[in-house]
Alkaline shock protein (Lacticaseibacillus brantae DSM 23927), 143 residues
Amino acid sequence: MAEETNIILANREDAQGTIEIVPEVLEVILGIAAVQVDGVYQMRGSLAASINEWFGRANHGKGVNLTVEADRIIADVYVYLNYGVSVPKVALAMQTSLREQLMYMTDLTLAEVNVHVVGVVPEKAAKIDPEDLFKDDETEDEE
């Protein structure tokens, strides 16, 4: 969960006032960007987030914890990966993607992106039809 301090974007010449972003907004941006990386199955969530999803309210910020220290923003991302992917490659892709997405949307830079792989989800096996248990997989050639 993000700290309760709003993040003030750097004052620009064309701004007519201050621009503040609530850290929860950054968590949502990072959560959506993380799920879109190839190899990510889903983000880790809490029981409350799971119950909310049952009722159709998606929490896109789940699995992302932000820490704001002075002018540094640190993101801890907790993910489940698909079985068979290269964990280092997916983690590096996540770090790059999250940094780029946050920079593009808010002009903020992440000092650190810590990726925590909390599980690997295996592929679902194909459902077996009981009627075809002893059926040959090969087709016979007709002469």
Remarks:
- The first strand starts at residue 7 and ends at 8.
- The chain has a mean pLDDT of 79.
- The chain has one domain: 18-123.
